[in-house]
Specification:
mainly alpha; 4 helices
Length: 136
């Protein structure tokens, strides 16, 4: 039984560590409107590492007992609250980064359309007076 507890405890500690690493990296994004590929790549890498730990935790819970029951019995209220708060913060920061990326893509697309309009001003002029009868 103590092996099960230590396995769960180690996975929870790994999850906490991976979450803190991800949070510290996401905090570097504060105030940015542009994200380099390396920055986003590191986010993806950290998320994959964290997901591996979460999957291992769920797999262990399925094989050896219920994760929620174990967490209630072996984690303090502060530890559970800390994990939940970290999860919420990570989700919010990822949503903010996604929103910033979407906004910059929209701005880039708008700039491309404006540039295209100045290069070819008559390419999208409606052809008034043109009538094509499709009836036979």
């Amino acid at each position: 039984m103590t092996e099960k507890r230590s396995g769960f405890r180690q996975l929870v500690n790994d999850l906490s560590e991976k979450s803190e690493k991800l949070l510290s990296h996401l905090k570097e994004a504060d105030g940015r409107n542009h994200y380099e590929d390396a920055f986003i790549g590191k986010i993806q890498h950290l998320l994959e590492e964290r997901q591996t730990v979460i999957d291992a935790l769920q797999h262990t819970a399925e094989n050896e007992g219920d994760l929620k029951t174990w967490a209630l019995a072996n984690l303090s209220k502060e530890e559970r609250a800390s994990l939940i708060a970290a999860e919420k913060t990570i989700a919010e920061r990822l949503r903010q980064i996604l929103w910033n990326i979407q906004q910059s893509r929209q701005l880039l697309h708008q700039k491309q359309r404006t540039s295209q309009h100045y290069r070819h001003p008559y390419s999208k002029v409606p052809r008034d007076g043109m009538f094509i009868d499709q009836r036979k």
